[in-house]
Structures are given as structure tokens and as C-alpha cells.
Input
Amino acid sequence: MSKPLVLQQVVKQFGEKTAVDQISFQVEEGEIYGLLGANGAGKTTTMRMVLGLIYPDGGEITYNGKPYGKELQRELGYLPEERGLYPKVKVSDQIIYLAKLRGMPAAEADKNLRYWLDRFEVPEYYDKKIEELSKGNQQKMGFIAAVVHKPKIVIMDEAFSGLDPVNVELLKATVKELRDQGTSILFSTHRMEHVEELCRNITILDRSKTVLQGNIREIKKRYPREEVLLHTTGEVTGLESISGVDSVERKERGYLVRISEVAAAKLILRKAMEDSEVEHFEIKEPTLNQIFIKEVGESNE
Output
């Protein structure tokens, strides 16, 4: 069975510059796929090619086994980083018009819009102009515009930027809901914690090339565990002198110990139990943020 979205050896050049260099990945039905990279890595160019706004110079992009065609307009939804709704036009006029451009009848678009406004607990925004809404609520309207026509593939670029924590959680729950309904989502962001929560598979780009790709859990297993988190009721002395300990950082409830070998963890626990009562002990797996910095470098973040 064909995958909803497949990129194979995709290349895009602008003059002498190669913006995307032989990128390949596939997004399954009901999957949120993470596309990561520093600024200028090729993420936006890749998303524009997926949307059919620009065409690859090499390789191919297929949608359920077929190349891009105008009939795909209804199948695709896009939430850009730069919000693009007209400030002086009413929410309802604008979003229903955009849905009609995607091939959806006005009555169905109206029904879907009202569903989403109720879902976000803002039914009164139906007749408001975009400029009358807060930045966070404008962003919610942009999200509705991206999904109102029930696309099968949604591209999200920094979907949660500028939102307060309550609205981030609301939008995350909604993205998961779309995934569970079978929508394929290409999700690009700088916020690694969102990727860890939402995505199963990722591609990390650096200077137009793929530098890391695969299942997040499998990727993490390739990297050493270099931190021990220790919560104790009292002080623990001498952790710095343990073989394999690189540094010790005092925390509110204990210590963060950086280690160069996992064997040091057992010695840290033994020392902590001798000196105090241990409330929490954890050999931390590397975060995606730490892995990203190792692969791409802090200068690019």
C-alpha cells in the first residue's frame, strides 16, 4: 500500500546554492513526523516542495503513490510560521473562502468552522475580524484555516510559537486528535520537547543534508547516558572524586552529575546512600536537544 507522503532523493537548487540535497523520508498514515534543523538547513524549502509551491530539481515526491497535481489541493493543509490571515476580514468570511478554494462546499466549510470554534471554546469569534483577536487566538484561527477542509496531509511550521502554555497544551491535544483520525502530519519546530512528545520518527537537516534520521527511541540508544539526577534529603560529599565523574552541579533538591562512563552511576548511588537518604536516582537518557546540538552544533541553534 502506498504511503501518504514519500520524498525520495529530493534536490532543490537556487542558482549555485543547493538548498536541499538528496533528502528522503516518508510519513505514514496517522503519524506526526518531525522535520528538524537550524535556520537555513532546508526545512522551509522542503515544506514548500511538499506543498507544490516550488518543484524539486531532482528526485521525486509522491502522495499515496502519485505525483503532485492540482487535485491534491483538497488533500493538503498548511500552517505557516508567518501567519497569513487578513487582519481586516471576518474569521468566517476568510476561513470559509479558503476552504472553498480547496474544493469544499460553503455549507460544509461553515459547519466545520463552527465545530473548530466550539472545540477551541471561542464560538463568538465567528463574526470577529482577525485584528480584533490576541496573537494567540489569531494563531488558533490559522490552525483552523489549515484543517477546516479536512486534509489528509498537514504541514505545520512552528505551530506553537508565541502561544502561552495553556494554548500550547490545547493545540497539542488537537494535533494528536488529528493524528488519531489518520491525518499524516509533517511537523517542523525548534522546540525539541514538543518533538519528543509528539513524534515517533524524525529527520534532522544541516546545511541542506540529512545528518540524522529514524525512530527517536532508536536514535537515543546510540548516544551515551552522560547525566545522573540525584535527589537526597541531605548533603552528599565527595561525588567529584568518583572515577568517571566529570562534574557535579548542586540543584534545589540534590545534584546533577555529569559522567563519562555509565559504571560511575552505581558508585554515585552507593556514596549517596552512605551520606544521606536517596529520594530519586535516575541515569538520564540524552534529550533530543542534546543530540541535536551534538549533530548540528551550538553555533547553528
Remarks:
- The longest helix spans residues 165-180.
- The chain is about 30% helix and 30% strand.
- The two ends are 38 Å apart (CA to CA).
